[in-house]
Amino acid sequence: MKLYNFDPAPNARRVRIFLAEKGIEVETVGVDLRDGGQFTDDFQAINPRCTVPMLELDDGTRIDESGAICRYFEAIQPSPSLMGSTPTEMAVIEAWHRRIELEGLAPGSDALRNGAKSFKDRAVSGSRPFPQIPELAERGVKRLHLFFDMLNSRLGESPYVAGPEFSIADILAYVVIDFAAWVKAVPSDEHTNLKAWYAKVAERPSSKA
Amino acid sequence: MKLYNFDPAPNARRVRIFLAEKGIEVETVGVDLRDGGQFTDDFQAINPRCTVPMLELDDGTRIDESGAICRYFEAIQPSPSLMGSTPTEMAVIEAWHRRIELEGLAPGSDALRNGAKSFKDRAVSGSRPFPQIPELAERGVKRLHLFFDMLNSRLGESPYVAGPEFSIADILAYVVIDFAAWVKAVPSDEHTNLKAWYAKVAERPSSKA
């Protein structure tokens, strides 16, 4: 089994922290996204979507979405549970995880890809050129601040994002907060619940993965 | 248990087709999105995100994401399986399901919300006003055509989107194709694999749900 990885990428971090929480070690293969490693012929032959992380199983099956890679490991090693044990837990955690993708990760990607010079003509993931839309970068940053507000409010009523236990929703939210700083969106001093939760998650050894 | 529903909405259709495939009947409560039903005080008290579908369990738990609602029903009634039975199947289906969200559903939403007059100042889901970005509507339509190409190519190598069996990935792809027509993006005559698969899925009784 091999995990194609680029250390700084938020989606790759989501998977690495998930694996660290499970105590699973997987061989990694580096793909340097800052150097166009995802666009080489060799890598496109492996993943035509030009994205990492990607997991390649020993039977050759390739899984090219972070959430799906986590699902695989949750299924082969359910403990410690990060995606819920009962039907209700599974659904509530998945809903929060997805909400963080929609309200945090997607706006962050919009902001970075439509605003950073290094993403000129690469405003959409993949090998097809797409021009940047500066208004979308601005919208992304504005939505990241709403995301912080929402998460701060949620963490005032729940110790972790999806309920009483740490889950994949916390992993993604933590990763998104660091990612948002790339476009200079950071929580404010009023986000006290969010900051306390962030400090608690940062103390977990997995956060360094 | 209650499912808050609006018949034409693609996410609500995804859940209804999923339930029809499982043979599960759930009481539905209509929320008319064309009439602002999602913004009433009553509905905002139930779902501050102002979205449907939303599932309310008998214990009061609310699940506000379509994929998570499907996960709940898959967990309480695994047969017929629509999200995979083995770890590899589960991961592969989830990866395709997510890819269709990213490459089909999201561009379709971008196109509709940033282009249709009825979504003026509602370019982002929820109660906060966001002005439309016409360039993003154009990008959405362009990406929908790339989505058709990708899906047509995939269906030339696999009978169903995620492999040999019908799954939630087919349900979402089918719903997205109908949704794309709202912004006048339709498959071309060259998309023969896609059209053959679409006809096959349309014959399933669940497609009318």
Explain how this protein is built.
- Two copies of one chain form a homodimer.
- Chain A is an alpha+beta fold and 209 residues long.
- Chain A folds into two domains: 75 residues, Glutaredoxin, CATH 3.40.30; 122 residues, Glutathione S-transferase Yfyf (Class Pi), Chain A, domain 2 (Up-down Bundle), CATH 1.20.1050.
- Chain A is 50% helix and 6% strand.
- Chain A has seven helices and four strands.
- The first copy, chain A, has a four-stranded mixed sheet.
- In chain A, strand 3 and strand 4 form a beta hairpin.
- In chain A, helix 4 runs antiparallel to helix 5, helix 4 runs parallel beside helix 6 and helix 5 crosses helix 7.
- The model of chain A has no long low-confidence stretch (mean pLDDT 97).
- Chains A and B meet through helix 3, helix 4 and helix 5 of A and helix 3, helix 4 and helix 5 of B.
Structural topology:
The structure is a homodimer of 209-residue chains.
Chain A: E1 2-5, H1 10-22, E2 27-30, H2 41-46, E3 54-56, E4 62-63, H3 66-76, H4 87-115, H5 134-154, H6 168-180, H7 192-202
Parallel strand pairs in A: 1-2
Antiparallel strand pairs in A: 1-3, 3-4
Helix pairs in contact in A: 1-3, 1-6, 4-5, 4-6, 5-7
Tell the overall outline of chain A.
globular
The CATH class of the largest domain in chain A is identified as Mainly Alpha
Structural class by helix and strand composition of chain A = alpha+beta
Largest interface: A-B, 39 and 39 residues
Number of distinct beta strands of chain A = 4
**Rg estimate of chain A, integer Å:** 17 Å
CATH topology tier name of the largest domain in chain A? Glutathione S-transferase Yfyf (Class Pi), Chain A, domain 2
Proportion in helices of chain A? 40-55%
Regions with little confidence, pLDDT below 50 for 5+ residues of chain A = none
* Total tally of structural domains of chain A: 2
